Amino acid sequence: MKLPIRWMLVSIAGLLAAAPAYADLKVATSLTDLASVAQFVGGKHVTAQSLCRGYEDPHFVPAKPSLMKAIQHADVFVSVGLELDGGWLPLVLPGSRNPKIQPGAKGFVDASEGVDVLEKPTGTVSRAEGDIHPLGNPHYYADPKALEVVADHLAEVFSRLDAPNAADYAANAKAFDEKMEASLARWEKEMAPYKGAPIVTYHKNFIYFAERFGLKQFGTVEPKPGIPPTPRHLAELAATMKQAGAKAVVYQPYYSAEASRELATKAGGVAVEIATEAGGLPGTDDVFSKFDVLVSSVAKALSGKSGGAQ
Ligand SMILES: [Zn+2]
Q1: What is the mean pLDDT of residues 92-98?
Q2: Rounded to two decimals, what is the model's pTM?
């Protein structure tokens, strides 16, 4: 993924400007969406930063010493849970040598707690064939309502760790939920014409979005989560897409645009780059603007007005 330098500078400047000089709680997260929710709930009492950028694959973040250093003095660490960050967080957390945020400590939060998890395995959990979703699908942050669960959870955690500001955290979480409900009504209206429409995604990270807005997850460019596409898989998928009239393929900045476009061209559809994580594309700085851009891109792709494989 190549981002224009100008966008990165604007984004960094924005983050610096947003950070208050003094914070009661320093919060670090594994995902930008969680940092965005944490900042909203924490308001002026919290500084929140994410280790993974919105344009990086959250499954595979290099466990660099700079990440360990970044969370050395954090009071809270918010993990996505369900092993989304299971490939790198178990290296980064101990590497920080910060006892406050290790799993089991008061400052460690598993944000998936309380979320209705989809694709929970019923039999024995196995990583056979490279499956990177061993505990169920971890991409719940593509559902606006799941983020309300996260907001309420974070308000409880922040209140426990910083009791004098508990009323503010509760009020901020309530405001977050209200804003999300109002936004969701808008997004549902925008998606209403596409109820039941089939959609192909690069990775299986869109099922919560599909479920919320009534889309049909038709297939994935990857044959299995974490396994790169093969020519044979793409040819077979393109054939079934043609039969079913499935035309929209969506992919994140950190996945292969080439494979997505190739599939879309073969199937006579369109491939559209989307951000499922805040900061993944310009104009998606927080979770609300992320969904604004995401919903309009998906609606456009499904409407067939995206103008061929892009
Ligand atoms: Zn995944």
Answers
A1: 98
A2: 0.91
Please report the pLDDT score of residue 11 as a whole number: 47
**What's the order of all strands across the beta sheet hosting 216-220?**
216-220, 198-201, 248-251, 270-273
299 alpha carbon, distance to own chain's centre: 19
d(CA 48, CA 221): 34
Tally of residues, the chain: 310
Cα 58 to ligand 1 centre (Å): 8
264 SS3 class: helix
Distance between Cα 221 and ligand 1 center (Å)? 13
The DSSP symbol for 227 reads B
305 Cα–ligand 1 center, Å: 28
- Give me ligand 1 centre to Cα 59, in Å: 7
Token pair belonging to 166: 């508990």
Instruction: Give me the residues paired with residue 28 across strands.
Output: 49, 77
Residue among 238, 222, 239 at smallest CA distance from 230: 222
